[in-house]
Amino acid sequence: MNTQSPDILIFRTSVQRKQDLFRMAGLLDKHPCIRRWTVDMEDWEKVLRIESAGISAAEISDSLRAVNIMAVALL
Questions:
Q1: Please, what's the b/e burial string for 40-75 (b: 16 or more CB within 10 A of its CB; e: otherwise)?
Q2: Model confidence over 14-55: pLDDT tens digits?
């Protein structure tokens, strides 16, 4: 049993439409290091919050760039 608490990664994104979320979901849902993710569509920065283990913010940004979504890590 893995009792390690997940890393929380926060990003400002370029998400604007539901199609952007579908592209993002296709990538993030399949990643074994990502436990859960959400996008706050009410926030002007369209904040992406990821609970993960074993993946860096840079890796996530690079992966999302491949599906034409900008993601800039916040703190």
A1: eeeeeebbbebebeebebeebbebbeeeebebeeee
A2: 999 999 999 999 999 999 999 999 999 999 999 999 999 999
**pTM of the predicted structure, to 2 decimals:** 0.89
Say which residues have a Cβ less than 8 Å from residue 10's Cβ, sequence separation at least 6.
47, 48, 49, 50, 73, 74, 75
**Structure-token match 């390690």, residue found:** 4
Confidence tier at 3 by pLDDT (50, 70, 90)? low
Contacts for 24 with CB less than 8 Å, ≥ 6 apart:
15, 39, 48, 64, 67, 69
